[in-house]
Design a protein that fits this description.
The chain is an alpha/beta fold. The chain contains 10 helices and 14 strands. Strand 10 and strand 11 form a beta hairpin. It binds 6-O-phosphono-beta-D-fructofuranose. The site of 6-O-phosphono-beta-D-fructofuranose has 12 residues, from strand 11.
């Protein structure tokens, strides 16, 4: 994405491009505002992550700073960002990220900065775009993990529980679960009943299939329950989900007596070389973002709609999360081939 922005901006328009390292930090830490040239982006296409670094704790409107007593408190650094953008005479500010980052981008747009948004998150949970780049690569990693888990589950006659990321959206679990041949998929959009999950495992055992694969999205919860947080949200930090796989695994072992193991795939889903689909999408989004900037269409985000790259207001993209429709076609297809959602 960064590569296509830099290349299109320089080759098409002859613009000068700067990158802010670690999110908006470059706007108030001079050493973190770096020039981006054709040389800076040479060879980065197969690299995962971002050459500019990132942080989920760098919101300039509520920037975490340690006070004299050593306690972390939030300070509003937004004016520093605005002042720096003006001193630099920025004609456009392309902001890449998920709903958190794009919400900050929207606040800066409202404050008068010429912002263009680009959706990037493995969660695929942004409304107004069919997909975000990063998702396809995570889906490959998660599917590959489920494929590998199958081998050991089958040899040992075990239930293997695989916990996947996705925050409040069940997309990674749903799509990797279907692609990897899971027997049970638990997602936040469909509250589960553990008895139904166990029923499915026992029914498979009665049919001679003495192993099962249960894919659990990190925010999945039982009917009447709530998602499990390892760390609750604090003032300027979003909560950290995780651990539901172990709870589900224990309940399964207790109720069915089948030897059960748990794998939390975690941040592996965020690493690795981007898939060709993500490279292509990142390239298309980057070029489209530069075009929007050249047309001065600020406050817009590039999005994929019916396979085409379009512009949508950032405001619409962050208004609501894009969640799995429990009555939708994906869930329907999964249920039709015998996958249980524990409902
Ligand atoms: O939003 C992307 C994501 O990977 C989520 O799927 C996950 O819940 C979260 O980020 C993990 O965040 P952190 O890297 O702060 O642990």
């Amino acid at each position: 994405m960064i590569r296509s922005v830099v290349k299109a901006a320089i080759l098409r328009h002859g613009w000068e491009i700067w990158g802010s390292e670690d999110s908006f930090d470059g706007f108030f830490k001079p050493e973190k505002m770096v020039p981006l040239t054709l040389d800076s982006v040479r060879g980065i296409l197969p690299r995962g992550g971002t050459i500019l670094g990132t942080t989920s704790q760098g919101n300039p409107f509520r920037y975490p700073v340690r006070n004299a007593k050593g306690k972390i408190e939030s300070q509003d650094y937004s004016q520093k960002v605005i002042d720096k953008a003006r001193t630099m005479n920025l004609d456009g500010l392309i902001v890449i990220g998920g709903d958190g980052t794009l919400s900050i981008a929207y606040e800066f747009f409202q404050a008068g900065l010429p912002v263009i948004g680009v959706p990037k998150t493995i969660d695929k949970d942004l409304l107004a775009t069919e997909i975000t780049f990063g998702f396809d690569t995570a889906l490959h990693t998660a599917t590959d993990a489920i494929d590998k888990i199958h081998t050991t589950a089958e040899s040992h006659d075990r239930v293997m529980v695989v916990e996947l990321m996705g925050r409040n959206a069940g997309w990674i679990a749903l799509e990797a679960g279907i692609s990897g041949g899971a027997d049970v998929i638990l997602i936040p959009e469909i509250p589960f009943d553990i008895e139904k999950v166990c029923e499915k495992i026992q029914q498979r055992a009665r049919n001679g299939r003495r192993f099962s694969i249960v894919v659990v999205a990190e925010a999945a919860a039982s009917s009447g329950g709530t998602p499990l947080y390892r760390q609750r949200a604090e003032e300027n930090l979003s909560g950290k989900l995780g651990g539901v796989g172990f709870v589900v695994g224990e309940m399964i072992q207790e109720r069915t007596g089948v030897d059960t193991r748990v794998l939390v795939l975690g941040h592996l889903q965020r690493g690795g070389s981007p898939s060709p689909f993500d490279r292509l999408l990142g390239t298309r989004f980057g070029v489209a973002a530069v075009e929007l900037a050249s047309q001065e269409r600020f406050g817009q985000m590039v999005a994929l709609k019916c396979g085409k790259v379009e512009a949508v207001p950032i405001k619409d993209a962050i208004a609501r999360q894009r969640l799995v429709d429990p009555e939708g076609e994906y869930v329907h297809a999964a249920k039709a081939i015998g996958i249980s959602f524990g409902d």
